[in-house]
Each structure stands twice: as structure tokens, then as C-alpha cells.
Amino acid sequence: EEDSKRMKEIQNEKEERAVKFVQQQLKQKAEEDRQRKERRMMMEEEQKRLKEEEEARRRQDHMNGRRELLKKITEKAVRNNEKETLDVRRQMSMQERASTIQSAKRPAPPNGFYAVPVDESLEMLPPRPRTSTFSTSTPRLTQTFL
Fold this sequence. Notes:
Region (Disordered): 1-146
Structural class: mainly alpha
Protein name: CCDC66 domain-containing protein
């Protein structure tokens, strides 16, 4: 009887140890799973952050590229504008030279003055009163004209 009791106790202890061992194994596996899940979450967050950084960098590069392109276009437009301005100045100076040459070729009029076309709108005005602007009675006027 004692032997059977003793055997039962030993059997119970073995079962308890086995249950404790299995419980310990389950706890350890649950902890490992939790750590693995945590590491996976951290890796996913890191990948997400890297992806966002890459996207931001790509957007920034795109904007910088657009800025560079805009800058190049602006510089080209400025250069073209300066070139056109120089061309216009060159043309103007060529025209001025041509007109100077033309005026030099034009014969001088016999009375020393070129004929100026009269503005017809001036003829429509009423005649001015005939008063002498040069008065000898005011010495101030004569002084200013000397």
C-alpha cells in the first residue's frame, strides 16, 4: 500500500513537473512570440519611415529639379531679352547712322532752313493779339534776354 501510495505521489510529482515544464514552455513561447511581433512592428515602422523619407526626398528632388528648370528657363529668357535689347540697340544705332548719312546727303535749302510741315490744327486757332512781347519800358525783360 505504501509503495502504491509512494508510486502515486511520485507519479503526481512527475505530472506536476511536466505541467510546470509545459507551462514554462508555453510562457517562453508566448514571450518569444511577443518579442518577435514587437520586432516585426518595429521593422515595419522603420520601413514605413524610410519609405516616407524616400518619398519626401523624391518630392524635394522633383521640386529642386523644377526650380532648376525654372531657373534655367529664366536665365535663358533673360539672356534672350538682353540679346534682343542689344539687337534693338544695334538696329537703332544703324538706323541713326543711316538717317545721319541721309541727312548729310540731303542738299541744304537755299534759305538755310528745312521746310517743316505746318500743323493744320494750329491754323484753326483764332489769331493771337498783336502785342509786342519785347517791351523797352521794362528793363528786366531785356536783361533776361541778354
